[in-house]
Amino acid sequence: SAGIAREVGASGEIRNVADTLTDPGLGSEITDHDGFKIWSLLSVPIRNSEDNVIGVVQLKNKCNGKPFTEAFAIFCGLGIHNCQMYESACKLMAKQSVALEVLSYHATAPQEDVDRLKKAVIPTGNEYQLYSFEFNDFLLSEDDTCKAAVRMFVEMDIPNKFYIPYEVGHFRCGCVCAISFY
């Protein structure tokens, strides 16, 4: 039966042997590797989505169809469910990709705002009253809110703690601008 499985795998054709003794291609009794006598055999190639043969299923010695039909129906149901779940996951991944692209586009600050913030003199924390309980960020303009955020990053030593090189500072400014202006 292993030889028939190899043959079906190579050819991709279904092989149905109703009686191994009278089949012209076999003409003798077939025994499995463990001595199991086979008198009828159905070998069907298993194909993937690209129609390539990825395996062979063999059904041996059919008695009646009921147990096989029930088991095969469960197997088919699992396969169909798996395909539906995969399709659903692909659709959700595509939607997520589009959503992230849209969010990324809208969360980006205009380059002129980033350049302006990079060139600006950032006042000290005392000038913004960052250490005071009277500090109120609602009174700050958008530009001052960005400058105050950059000042907090610098005073908390965020660039050194997270190993952000000074050249990447424009990212910090761009991020602050994008958060503030949106």
From TrEMBL:
This is PDEase domain-containing protein. One of its GO terms (biological process) is signal transduction. InterPro entries: GAF, GAF-like_dom_sf, PDEase_catalytic_dom. GO terms for molecular function: 3',5'-cyclic-nucleotide phosphodiesterase activity. It holds the Pfam family GAF. Residues 110-182 form the PDEase domain.
